[in-house]
Amino acid sequence: MRLSAPRITPLDEKDWSDETRESLGKAADSGRVYNIFRTLARHPKLLKRWLPFANHVLFKSALSARHREILILRMGWLCQSEYEFAQHVVIGRRAGLTDTDIQRIVDGPDAAGWDPFEATLVRAADELRGDAFVTEHTWKALAARYGEEQLLDMVFTAGQYTLVSMALNSLGVQLDPGLEGFSRWRR
User: Fold this and answer.
1) pLDDT band per the 50, 70, 90 thresholds, residue 186
2) How many domains does the chain have?
3) CA-CA distance, 93 to 110, in Å (whole number)?
4) Cβ neighbours of residue 48 under 8 Å, at least 6 residues apart?
5) Are residues 52 and 68 both part of a single domain?
6) Is residue 23 predicted with pLDDT exceeding 90?
7) 4 within a domain of the structure (yes/no)
8) Could you tell me if 29 and 93 lie in one domain?
């Protein structure tokens, strides 16, 4: 973790506003609310407005769950957002990623063993993070398989998780219990 303590302390559920409780809905009802949400509970209006977009990217995107998680994990790694990466290792495994896949995501688009299209997806993430632009060659390779909605969701997924990674890093959101950090994946 870049910070060993939060800069903005997560808000205990007993202190949430009605607006926060409404925004978090089912997550609040389950009793398992992650540190990211407890931190954003400090700004109920931001949380309320950000969640619809975040939910689109995570749950309603035109991308397959596997491709979405490849993008998210790569952006989390590139941004060195340990919280983001750790959360999405769990989600990525549920989407069918293996530990070998996850290590390959860490190693980048030129790592051995990639499916050519998935390597291109990782390369797109690298280009977006490095230059805020997908090169023509990479775009054409993606467009050979993806329709317009998938191309849009690809760019917005990378952007969403860059934004979230910046927030998590800067706010010092700490790992939730049971999550493994970067140490396992560093070579």
Assistant:
1) confident
2) 2
3) 22
4) 19, 22, 23
5) no
6) no
7) no
8) no
Reported as a single tens digit per residue, the pLDDT across 126-163 is 999 999 999 999 999 999 999 999 999 999 999 999 99
117 and 26 belong to one structural domain: no
Q: What is the CATH number of the domain that holds 169?
A: 1.20.1290.10
Asked if 131 and 76 sit in the same domain, the reply is: yes
* Cβ atoms 141, 120 nearer than 8 A: yes
Write the DSSP assignment of the chain as a string of letters: ---SS-SSPPPPGGG--HHHHHHHHHHHHHT---HHHHHHTTSHHHHHHHHHHHHIIIII-SS-HHHHHHHHHHHHHHTT-HHHHHHHHHHHHHTT--HHHHHHHHH-TTSTT--HHHHHHHHHHHHHHHHSS--HHHHHHHHTT--HHHHHHHHHHHHHHHHHHHHHHHHTPPPPTT---GGGT--
**Among 137, 111, 131, 136, CA closest to 122:** 111
Residue among 67, 39, 36, 42 nearest 54 (CA) = 36
Domain that residue 125 falls in: 63-184
Residue 29 pLDDT: 67
In sequence order, which residues have a C-beta less than 8 Å from that of residue 127 and are 6 or more positions away?
133, 134, 135, 138
Place of tokens 């949380």: 47
| Same domain as 86, residue 160 | yes
Task: Please check whether residue 83 is in contact with residue 35, taking contact to mean a CB–CB distance below 8 angstroms.
Answer: yes
